[in-house]
Amino acid sequence: MWRKAVVALGAMLLVLSLGGVASALHMITGEVISVNHSWQELTINVSGFPVTFTAIDRAAMALATVNPGDMVTVATGSFLSDFSPANYHDGPSWMLTAESIRKLPAGS
C-alpha cells in the first residue's frame, strides 16, 4: 500500500514540475524580416522593433519552412518585457533563443 502511495506521489510531483517548465516559455508573434540559415537566426518585427532569435533544437529545423513576410509565433524561454532599443544590449551575455517556431496561416 505504501509503495503505491509513494509511486502516485512521485508521478504527481513529476507532472507538476513539467507544468512549470512549459509555462516558462513565452510566445511572441511577428512578421519575419529575415532568416539566416548559416547562423540559425530568425529576425521578426515585434511591435515595430526587429528582434533576432537564435534557433535551437526544433526551431532550427523549422527555419527551412519560413520566409520573409511570413507571420510566425516563436516560443522562447528568453524574454524581455519591452523590446524597445533602450533595452537592447549587444554582447555575448544577451541572446534570445527560439525553442520552437510556428508559421501562421496566411491572413492571420
What topology emerges from the helices and strands here?
Blueprint lengths: L1 H22 L2 E11 L4 E6 L2 E7 L2 H5 L8 E6 L19 E3 L1 E4 L5
Protein name: DUF5666 domain-containing protein
Organism: Candidatus Methylomirabilis lanthanidiphila
Strand order of the largest sheet: 5-3-2-1-4-6
**Count of discrete domains:** 1
Question: Quick one: CATH superfamily?
Answer: Nucleic acid-binding proteins
Radius of gyration, CA atoms, in whole angstroms: 18 Å
CATH topology heading? OB fold (Dihydrolipoamide Acetyltransferase, E2P)
Strand-residue proportion: 25-35%
- Topology order in helix (H) and strand (E) letters: HEEEHEEE
Q: Any idea of the CATH class?
A: Mainly Beta
| Uncertain segments | 18-23, 84-89
Q: Which word captures the global form?
A: globular
Integer average pLDDT: 76
CATH architecture: Beta Barrel
Q: What is the first-to-last residue Cα distance?
A: 53 Å
Report the helical percentage. Answer: 25-40%
Count of discrete alpha- or pi-helical segments spanning 4 or more residues? 2
Count of DSSP strands: 6
Task: Give a short account of the largest sheet.
Answer: 6 strands, mixed
Secondary-structure-based class equals alpha+beta
Describe the protein in words.
The chain has 108 residues and is an alpha+beta fold. It has one domain (25-103): Nucleic acid-binding proteins (OB fold (Dihydrolipoamide Acetyltransferase, E2P)), CATH 2.40.50.140. It is 25% helix and 34% strand. The chain contains two helices and six strands. Strands 5-3-2-1-4-6 form a six-stranded mixed β-sheet. The longest helix has 22 residues, at 2-23. It is globular and about 60 Å long. The chain starts with a helix and ends in a 5-residue tail after the last strand.
